[in-house]
């Protein structure tokens, strides 16, 4: 038994042989090379997308594409805009514009809480880069649609519609959609959007977190009273576990809320979440987390590259708002994550992986869905992390 435990511990500490053996490029060169690679690789991806669909994954030799109302529909165009911004590749820009056109009807969609993912990651980047007023108008209309899901009694935006499982579910992922609301208010939109974002963030701090700053995935509310019915999970290992991507959503969400409000409560929350992640005994040496921090079978459990990419991007921003040892800690951890994701352990070869950049993400392990596959949002947050590093640290 001692030998087995020792072997498991060594695997956890090593993280990944490929990562450990990969020579490190200077970060400036790595970022430049990665965006050039992405421009070429996404030409492969573009060929695998049927008209009117958006790419999601690649599994068992088949490309997986979904309807535009799927929550991930904005990540492809958002990634293309990041690539275009760095490479000025005209073909990439043309594909980015076409991808925007595909999802444009989502601006009036009110079926779930994911309008921020769908419309801000896409049109937000497009407007930031091009300044086209029609893109700004679509963001504002999307914010109006998202605001319809705010429930004043609960003081939160309802994530999914009522079902046999949930009355008024709010998931930690919803923190990400607040960015569009904040931006819309700050850029000529209705002030109520930002008020909703702040109220939702405060309710989430109150009800979603444990004393160690880890987050539940789902909190279900009584829509008549606003009381918490139960705290549970949908994609995590257990109701009481720390689902890795959920911790990443929380980290990113409160860092972003501090950016828009400068409320120290949000900065404290973000730092607490960051320390929970980075000091967790089950975080491997390469800092790409297992799909859940409490997953069965660690260190042989599946990884989630999407969580690593998301955390890297969030930590780079959080380091901007911290000083001294915390700043160095967060930046160093993000660097490790970026180097890991760019290594052979997680990074695809040109022309492979269905055209996606990263391998080894996990969507919803308990549902046997998207396990150990590329995912479009892993690429998006990886590219965002690279762009942020270049902007802030080079």
What is the overall silhouette?
globular
- pLDDT average, as an integer? 95
Order of helices and strands: HHHEEHHHHEEEHHEEHHHHEEH
N- and C-termini, Cα separation:
48 Å
By helix and strand content, what is the structural category? mainly alpha
Number of strands: 9
Low-confidence stretches: 14-21
- Strand line-up in the sheet with most strands: 5-6-7
**What's the story with the biggest beta sheet?**
3 strands, antiparallel
What is the helical fraction, as a range of percent?
Answer: 40-55%
Q: How large is the count of helical segments?
A: 14
Gyration radius, in Å: 20 Å
Strand content: 5-15%
Q: Helices and strands in order, then pairings?
A:
Layout: H1 2-14, H2 17-21, H3 27-46, E1 54-59, E2 62-66, H4 75-87, H5 90-103, H6 115-130, H7 133-147, E3 150-151, E4 156-157, E5 169-171, H8 178-186, H9 192-208, E6 218-221, E7 228-232, H10 244-261, H11 264-278, H12 305-320, H13 324-341, E8 361-364, E9 369-373, H14 376-393
Antiparallel strand pairs: 1-2, 3-4, 5-6, 6-7, 8-9
Helix pairs in contact: 3-4, 3-14, 4-5, 4-6, 4-14, 5-6, 6-7, 6-8, 8-9, 8-10, 10-11, 10-12, 12-13, 12-14
Protein name: Glucuronyl hydrolase
InterPro entries: 6-hairpin_glycosidase_sf, 6hp_glycosidase-like_sf, Glyco_hydro_88, UG_Glycosaminoglycan_Hydrolase
GO molecular function: hydrolase activity
